[in-house]
Amino acid sequence: MAFHIHDDQNEDSIMSEINMTPMVDVMLVLLIIFIITLPVIQQAVKIELPKANSVRNEVKPESVQLTIDGKGQIFWNSTAIDLKTFDGYAEKAAQKEPQPEINLRADKSVKYEYVAQVLAASRRAGLTKLGFVTEPD
After folding, report:
1. Which of 107, 100, 101 is nearest to 74 (CA)?
2. Given a cut of 60, is residue 2 above it in pLDDT?
3. CA-CA distance, 129 to 121, in Å (whole number)?
4. Which H or E element spans position 76?
5. Which end of the chain is more exposed for a tag (fewer CB within 10 A), N or C?
6. How far does Cα 112 stand from its chain's mean position?
7. 77: three-class secondary structure by DSSP
8. H or E segment and range at residue 35
9. What kind and span of H or E run contains 64?
10. Which letter does DSSP use for residue 16 in this model?
11. How far apart are CA 12 and CA 29, in angstroms?
12. 75-88: pLDDT as tens digits
């Protein structure tokens, strides 16, 4: 773009007007492109799609509260049991699909021997989802 001052006296003088022709040409070309491509983009078949829920329905496994008090007594969901009964409960729980989550709560004064016996019986039965529950400070 050249700026020229148009003077009748001098042909070589600078002209101070902007030449708008190239800008108008570009705008017309863009307008033609949009006019041609817009119907192609919107050319779709009008249909009503069915509604579907894509969220998977997960079955939450049941949770078993296994408690060992300070004297070594075992509680399966608040029911007092002995170690032999625990073996039967653990085997039944291991057979379930999905396997229940076992939350082990042990009193801080209980001997480790009782906790080790419960852990060994759980392992023998095939329980794999065993967690220890503690209290925050």
Report:
1. 107
2. no
3. 13
4. strand 74-76
5. C
6. 39
7. coil
8. helix 21-41
9. strand 63-68
10. B
11. 33
12. 999 899 999 999 99
Q: Is 30 helix (H, G, I), strand (E, B) or coil?
A: helix
Residue burial 33-61, b: 16+ Cβ < 10 Å; e: rest: eeeeeeeeeeeeeeeeeeeeeeeeeeeee
- pLDDT value at residue 55: 75
Relative to beta strand 63-68, strand 101-106 is parallel
Helices vs strands, H then E, count in the chain: 3, 5
Token code pair at residue 104: 């082990």
Start-to-end CA distance of the chain, whole Å, equals 77
The CA distance from 56 to 53, in Å, is 8
Residue type for position 82: D
At 40, list the tokens.
């192609």
